[in-house]
Specification:
The structure is a homotetramer.
Chain A lengths: L4 H12 L2 E3 L5 H4 L6 E3 L3 E9 L2 H8 L10 H13 L10 E9 H7 L5 E5 L20 E3 L7 E4 L2 H26 L17 H4 L8 E9 H11 L6 H17 L1 H12 L2 E3 L1 H11 L6 H4 L3 H11 L4
Helix pairs in contact in A: 4-10, 9-10
Chain lengths: ~300, ~300, ~300, ~300
């Protein structure tokens, strides 16, 4: 992630502005407000704005006239209760707005979450930056064999080098050809004066899917936590997980009580099916249930034993 | 609207808290933050929190690194352009949270707007306040004759008095019986020690639809403006319009440029159908179109002539 | 639930119409299509239309050119996999439309589910039916003591009779006064020729919250299952649970494979928090965890032991 | 668009299945059900399923017990009234499901419409087809000068040939390299036995944005019409407009009355701002308003005069 001097100056100037407010304010989050937090090789997450704090969740749950807080202890108890019993509406009363730079193929996974507001940098209106994602060698992995969706062993150094050379060459060539098609540099000057530039909305189709895009993305806390529970999960693709990890840290700064409840009741929790619960009950009763008599598939059995820390 | 001393104290205390923030801040809105703005006889609208300002719309539309503002003049031009061309996503980048007290029959219209977050005071968990809506005599009107949905002439003083007596008596009796069913006062003391209180979730069914409820309601600006365009409209029922009018004033404080564009392109605008446009073109060409040859229904013709200020 | 002769005739006529279609069709659901399924004393659930079947979920998950089905066995495996791993989008590819008659206080809980389409019978436009909900004595219960939200022991016959008398009298009187305010019978004839009728949109505020309303309600399968998981839950109020139970039966007719997976992975499942899982692991390792050293609240401990069928 | 023999056989087989249903059925739409309707060079739109007909809109608006239809004449009047007065909920009672093949850069515009259900072909799980979009020469146009977003004059034959050569070469090379990275053919056989294949979720990032993807996309009628009003508009990019045009034809088959109302009140209509209306009123009064005294920008003035068919 390299910001231009101009971008850096804009951020610095914006961070220097301060105002007095009556709104719920969180100093821990204010301290990183507007700053780009690096993700992948050229991406970032910036917290642009936020609404509410842990107390605001309590305030909404109680439909209060004043601030939500009674005592931090009480607030934590209520927040844990709300999270445990899936009372989602008080968590919708907090909102956060991010500025995110991310590869297009990650953006395509991300946008599947529909309960957010988004403004993407327009490739019809503007020229996209020359930035594309190249994985670190340690993240280049072979197709998983047991799972049609996912990665397995990391490639050898030689194989990784071969892959990166292909990715780099194709991205470079496609971007160079994008510029040729546009026939225009970033300042709007025509490169070849004797021919027209192709419309931006058409030229962009020549770019590869690892090209970076950027957007403003705004979401309420309940839906953010749902996003994080899916995208910080080991089943998610590494690249989007890298963003989720950074965003989870911003939530920990912003709403420490909620973040802890989320960790306990979502991230570290497990949903046990009716059949899985029956197995657990039999185990606790001293029985020896087997995969065959459990009604679970082989895969479910393995997953359950892993969750239970049991050797099955 | 009469707040209890305790509620008033909570609000006063909350308003006295101030913090420094790097977020976009709007002094004109801060000045009324948390204060109840009266609506109808016992209702109110309170702005609890907000995110963004006019510049934040510009900032999102440009996917900026810094504040959106270049010059106020430019910002206004862009906001008007976005509004005119239905580019709605930048307007979703502002958010506002209200605390609202309103009659249940108004709440039932309001909740039809689904793109908002809401936490309502729970009649399962708590006892509802003894407050019910009684219209001012000037708002008691007969059923419209030309329109199956709507009001017509205001009732005479005698008829209004008769109506109000019925509404008051039934609301009073139903609330008194609600208390009898609960068998519990507001402090949780049993009234009749010899019998149990009916569960709150059941007792509430005895209340009338003009009983007041309250909720926290949070929405993005785009959807708020959509709500206002429908609910500040003369076709909306007076009671919900009264809320929309007060909320529109909060938008004018918060986002003066957007509020003006909204007034020009939505509230004061008219959608002319293809057939209506054909009539206008014929009028401008000096022709004399008639309802019969226009393809418009009699009602559409009247509405068009009213919009055009034409005697048709 | 008593339909008028006219309503019954309309339903009978509609059920006699048949057409040939290339769409996915489910005879088990067709057999009850359009028929009112009774709920509570005057309510009903009618399935009006539906889109898709179990195979359509598979078809969408595979983005198939043909029908989804390979073998029923495979389909069931994939549907269970999708449900287990929270791949919700294929379940959104089925849709169902209901016509529902329900008390207003139930409608107010129901409408909190925002991801549905709804057309409610309009009290501005039409006169509401004289039908109100009176619980059966067996469902009249005292306020729960351990839980601020919920019911406890059923009332004695004498107490129940007292409660029902109050509910009936108030509903009767309020409805009679509603008619007086309207000054109009169901055929539009004025009752008292010497005074005007109050506008319907105003008169309705005099009705009690147990008055029945009705609506068309349409939702995709994923969101319907979410609705059912919350509303068929013992924490939900009995009255809305009664609707959820009937709707769950319609899902079992419509999508037997999905309904079974839903039963296993949602209705009969339990979400164990990180702390709860730690307790289970200790139990399986032969340790004796206690509430005090578990990090669980007393209530969470009780709930966990109940789920595990363990005496704690 | 070239389907494989297997795909064509699946479609043919699916179309041959027929069932009896009590649901609302539209023979005009059934006749094209499941058939691919070509769009662009390799894309298509297939109607997979639908719910409702014109009468279903009326039925929901009236919350009817029987079919909506009284007389076609009445239904048309009501549908026009609902469309004119923005009563959107009855239109949400119809639903349609499409299978669509489209270039990724079009999919990225499309997915901004959030009120739909979507299942996309997964590049993590499967290998994408070797199909990429190459515009016809007549659609290759220069960047618009007066409008930062859009196209202007069509390129000369020579310029177009140059552009197409670049687009084709880059897409071909990137796809060939994608196969090299995967090291696997479509039947899952390894190409080079001595090295591993890169995970599919990574290899796909090498593809260009004109590569075709496909998805199942399901939406209610109200939101579909909103989509079409924006995407069948001349301001939309040609490529997505091509899809909107074909989908509009499917709506005309499905719901002829609604389609006609939509054409009159949306597609052929114009929203006149308060200032624009003032200009029209002055013109009708015989005055000579000028851009300068109108309060309109130069661009708004031109657009208004175009709408009015006036020489300004």
């Amino acid at each position: 992630m390299e910001l231009t001097a101009e971008q850096q100056a804009e951020i610095t100037e914006a961070r220097e502005q301060a105002a007095i407010t009556r709104r719920a304010t969180v100093p821990e989050l204010e301290s990183i407000l507007l700053q780009p937090l690096p993700v992948l090789d050229h991406g970032f997450v910036r917290v642009i704005d936020y609404m509410g704090d842990d107390a605001a969740i309590v305030q909404a749950a109680r439909v209060s006239y004043g601030r939500g807080t009674r005592r931090v202890q009480d607030d934590a108890g209520l927040i844990r209760y709300l999270m445990r019993h899936r009372h989602s509406t008080p968590f919708e009363m907090c909102e956060i707005k991010y500025h995110i730079k991310l590869p297009i193929f990650v953006a395509r996974q991300w946008i599947r979450h529909r309960t957010a507001n988004v403004n993407e940098y327009s490739g019809r209106y503007s020229i996209l930056d020359k930035e594309y994602y190249l994985p670190e060698p340690g993240h280049l992995a072979a197709q998983a064999k047991t799972n049609r969706q996912g990665r397995d062993e990391v490639l050898s150094a030689a194989d990784a080098a071969r892959v990166l050379a292909i990715l780099r060459d194709d991205a470079e060539r496609c971007y160079a050809d994008y510029e040729t098609l546009l026939n225009e540099d970033r300042d709007g000057n025509r490169l070849d004066p004797d021919r027209p530039g192709l419309a931006r909305e058409l030229a962009r189709m020549n770019l590869t899917l690892n090209t970076y895009t950027q957007w403003y993305w705004k979401i309420d806390l309940h839906n953010l936590l749902h996003f994080l529970s899916l995208r910080a999960d080991p089943h998610a693709q590494y690249e989007i997980r890298a963003y989720a990890a950074v965003m989870l840290e911003t939530v920990q700064r912003w709403l420490p009580i909620t973040a802890e409840a989320f960790s306990d009741y979502r991230l570290g929790a497990a949903l046990l099916s009716a059949r899985a619960l029956a197995v657990v009950r039999r185990l606790l009763a001293g029985e020896q249930p087997t995969p065959a008599d459990s009604g679970l598939s082989a895969r479910e059995w393995r997953e359950l034993m892993a969750v239970l820390g049991h050797d099955g």
